[in-house]
Write a structure and sequence with these properties.
Layout (H helix, E strand, L loop, with lengths): L1 E9 L4 E4 L10 H4 L4 H4 L6 E4 L5 E7 L3 E3 L3 E2 L2 E2 L8 E3 L2 E3 L14 E12 L5 E11 L2 E10 L8 E4 L6 E2 L4 E3 L6 E2 L3 E4 L2 E4 L8 E4 L3 E4 L2 E8 L7 E3 L10 E3 L4 E5 L1 H7 L3 E5 L9 E3 L4 E8 L5 E4 L2 E4 L5 H6 L2 H10 L13 E2 L2 H7 L11 H11 L1
Parallel strand pairs: 25-30
Antiparallel strand pairs: 1-4, 1-12, 2-3, 3-13, 5-15, 6-7, 8-9, 10-11, 10-14, 11-12, 16-27, 17-18, 19-20, 21-27, 22-23, 22-26, 24-25, 28-29
Length: 381
């Protein structure tokens, strides 16, 4: 089991109204959606929901990196048990050591209760997830989060009868994770390699596409180092790296492949470390706590970690959603344009199937070494 953290919009912090100006006749549709589509929304009226910030944090134990509906096996809770107390909508929920639902005190778990498609005024579709906390057999929807893009603070979204979709059984939400380096990783700067934890905003790092670029933001998080978020260790030399390189599972490495040119029309690609696991030169490095550090530039680019090309933080919706409200606020203060658009990946990112096709398990992979292009970058710096 690993410990997961999600950030939700608490139900009581949402402004909900009928678009025709009438009163809500079926109660709060966010909480009542637990009873199904026919009873949850103001049928046949439309509903408008205005969002602030996702500032309620829920932490739970997780086995598979997915927030699912009904993590039960008959009367037993088998996943997503609450890991830390949380107060939401004026109610405090506390973890319980029991797993049998009829015991007292009853087990407490977190669920993906339903998913609903809602629309912005311009027609952009968002996928809203109702998050519930269950105590024994009593389920309460406490708020919502989003699958994919999250609306900027102040956005009003609409549930349109006949257009919006609803799913209340069997849905799953991959828990967003951030790409990052483990503390101790040496990053190449204009003054030489430095441990990433000694860097700060304004320091100049060497990049593949932009030469010397300033760091715009540094973030840090600690997670359970067993399970889905355990670091992946790339052994010295596996990509041409000078020392062992530890990264988060979703962290993408730069690889070169003439076969990729044949299949995909490009020979430079990005591959998540978890897609290259081979149990030897690329393997999980289990630790009690993983100390991850995120490094963000003006644009998504390749920095050089332990001498090889590896990505900077990419602010796609998944990465942004996995950051807490404080970190998101810091990023949006520096990059207000993120409210309007996400960063663009600097290279094609491979799926798991593509990665396994182009880069079958091997002791070494065709990475890009700083040593091969250092003169050019040094001059640019």
């Amino acid at each position: 089991m690993s410990v997961q953290t999600i950030h939700i919009f608490a139900k009581n912090a949402l402004n909900i109204s009928r678009t025709d100006g009438g009163a809500l006749t079926q109660g709060n549709p966010i909480s009542n959606a637990v009873n199904g589509d026919a009873y949850s929304w103001e049928n046949p009226s439309d509903v408008a929901i205005t969002f602030g910030t996702a500032d309620t944090t829920i932490t739970f134990n997780d086995a598979d990196g997915i927030l699912s509906d009904d993590p039960f096996n008959n009367a037993d809770v088998i996943d997503q048990t609450l890991a830390a107390p949380v107060t939401v909508n004026g109610v405090t929920y506390n973890p319980s050591a029991t797993t049998v639902r009829w015991q007292n005190p009853a087990p407490v778990n977190v669920e993906n209760e339903y998913e609903v498609s809602v629309y912005s005024a311009s027609g952009t579709v968002y996928h809203m997830v109702g998050v519930s906390i269950t105590q024994g057999y009593t389920t309460t929807v406490v708020g919502v989060m989003f699958k994919g893009a999250t609306p900027p603070p102040g956005t009003t979204l609409f549930y349109h009868q006949g257009s919006s979709t609803y799913s209340g059984s069997g849905q799953t939400l991959p828990i967003p994770t951030v790409t990052c380096f483990v503390a101790g990783t040496r990053i190449e700067t204009t003054t030489g390699p430095r441990a990433i934890e000694t860097l700060c905003a304004g320091d100049m790092v060497l990049t593949l596409d932009g030469g010397a670029r300033p760091i715009r933001w540094i973030g840090r998080s600690r997670v359970d180092g067993f399970g889905p978020h355990a670091p992946i260790r790339i052994a010295a030399g596996a990509f041409g790296n000078l020392r062992d390189l530890d990264v988060s599972p979703n962290h993408r490495m730069y690889l070169y492949s003439s076969k990729a040119e044949l299949y995909l029309g490009c020979n430079e690609v990005l591959v998540a470390a978890k897609f290259l696991l081979n149990g030897d030169s690329v393997r999980r490095a289990l630790v009690r706590r993983a100390d991850y550090i995120h490094l963000m530039l003006d644009q998504h680019d390749m920095v050089f970690a332990e001498g090889v090309a590896s990505e900077s933080l990419f602010t796609g919706s998944g990465a942004m959603n996995s950051l807490g409200s404080t970190a998101q606020a810091e990023l949006l203060a520096i990059f207000p344009q993120l409210k309007l658009r996400e960063q663009v990946l600097c290279r094609r990112s491979l799926t798991k199937a593509e990665a396994h096709l182009l880069f079958p398990a091997s002791a070494t992979y065709p990475g890009l070494r700083l040593a091969d292009i250092a003169p050019t970058l040094r001059i640019a710096a």
